[in-house]
Amino acid sequence: MKRVLIPVDGSEYSMRALEKAKEIALAFESDIVLINVKDIRFPLYPYEPGNVIDMGATIDQLAETASKNAQRILDDAAQVFEDIPGDVETFELDGEPGNRIIKFIEEDPDIDLVIMGSLGVNGGLQSFLLGSVTNKVLHHVDRAVLVVK
């Protein structure tokens, strides 16, 4: 497992995935790829995902806040891997998280393993009603996926 991808969203389960990824990175001297997907769509229903900050916010304000949050999440995640022998890369992406993660994996043939938390920041009721990002990725990629509870 030379190249390991961890999508991060700042949730408790995402942090658990980072810890498991660090164990693997230390054991196999893996390179780490961290991605955060900014989803700034406005939800139509209360259980839909989206980072709605303020209904009066402009799109530019919304995008700027989402970028700041994404960078903070990526910086915090990268700190977990400060002492590993491999390289650590971070990517801030835009779009619907499940589809964007799948596309990223498809575009990088060197990714050997994907490690994800079982629930993200929009877990709970949304996951029950709509299915989770993890479930979508798990069923639509041709790489090994480790789901961390």
UniProtKB/TrEMBL annotation:
It comes from the Bacteria. Residues 1-149 form the UspA domain. Coiled coil: none annotated. InterPro entries: Rossmann-like_a/b/a_fold (IPR014729), Universal_stress_UspA (IPR006015), UspA (IPR006016). PANTHER family: STRESS RESPONSE PROTEIN NHAX, UNIVERSAL STRESS PROTEIN UP12. Belongs to the universal stress protein A family. This is Universal stress protein.
